[in-house]
Amino acid sequence: MAYPSQLGFQDAASPVMEELLHFHDHALMIVFLISTLVLYIIVAMVTTKLTNKFLLDSQEIEIIWTVLPAIILILIALPSLRILYLMDEVNDPHLTIKAVGHQWYWSYEYTDYEDLAFDSYMIPTQDLTPGQFRLLEADHRMVIPVESPIRVLVSAEDVLHSWAVPSLGVKMDAVPGRLNQTAFITSRPGVFYGQCSEICGANHSFMPIVVEAVPLEQFENWSSLMLEDA
């Protein structure tokens, strides 16, 4: 999760998020090189008093400054499109979970089970135990098996919401009357935090998302206990 004074992204917990981080570094390096070149040209033009008559009208340099930006755009666009299609890919999910946004909490339905559903509310500050995070902890976590393809169907009951978990590289709008789909794979066990990312009313800041990735055996034990309590 994020920590105070953090400047970069959260540590990746899914293959897609790792790809996004690599693409960010790739694009940032290109931006840095372009900015350096432009700054050098500006400083050179301001400080020098010499004039090169071949630069005032030159077909060659016009070809260069037309072709070079096109090549740079291609170097950015191709990896971007690759990741875009990777994020839309849903390959034989092992588990499907329906996440429904409400004002102001989330409800989860494990559609592969007959009666496994629960609401997830934020834990009030006065009820937090030592080690829990303010505004991020929920009374019921969305528990998933690690290293398994998970499909999440996202919708809303009242207004627009957005189901987002940064470390998993997931962000999907929850629209009333519409069922949106996203998928991810957690590459390691852990607890991953997110929040509603669409302004949805007075308590928009108080509907956190907590995803807990556990080994398959622990997930089966958890699901059995939840079904017994239902």
Q: How would you concisely characterize the structure shown here?
A:
This protein is α+β, with helices and mostly antiparallel strands.
Characteristics:
Immunoglobulin-like, 35% helix, 3-stranded mixed beta sheet, alpha+beta, 10 strands, elongated, 230 residues, Helix Hairpins
Write the layout of secondary structure elements.
Elements: H1 15-47, H2 53-56, H3 59-88, E1 95-102, E2 105-110, E3 117-120, E4 142-145, E5 150-156, E6 161-165, E7 170-174, E8 180-184, E9 190-195, E10 208-214, H4 216-229
Parallel strand pairs: 1-5, 4-10
Antiparallel strand pairs: 1-2, 2-3, 5-8, 6-7, 9-10
Helix pairs in contact: 1-3
Write structural notes for this entry.
It comes from Hippocampus barbouri. The chain crosses the membrane at residues 27-51, 63-85. It catalyses: 4 Fe(II)-[cytochrome c] + O2 + 8 H(+)(in) = 4 Fe(III)-[cytochrome c] + 2 H2O + 4 H(+)(out). With 230 residues, this protein is of the alpha+beta class. The chain has two domains: 13-86, Orthogonal Bundle (Helix Hairpins), CATH 1.10.287; 93-227, Immunoglobulin-like (Sandwich), CATH 2.60.40.420. The chain contains four helices and ten strands, in the order αααββββββββββα. It has helices at residues 15-47, 53-56, 59-88, 216-229; strands at residues 95-102, 105-110, 117-120, 142-145, 150-156, 161-165, 170-174, 180-184, 190-195, 208-214. A five-stranded mixed β-sheet has the order 3-2-1-5-8, with no helix packed on it. It has a three-stranded mixed β-sheet with strand order 4-10-9. A two-stranded antiparallel ribbon has the order 6-7. A hairpin with a 2-residue loop joins β1 (95-102) and β2. α1 (15-47) packs antiparallel against α3. The longest helix has 33 residues, at 15-47. The model has no long low-confidence stretch (mean pLDDT 91).
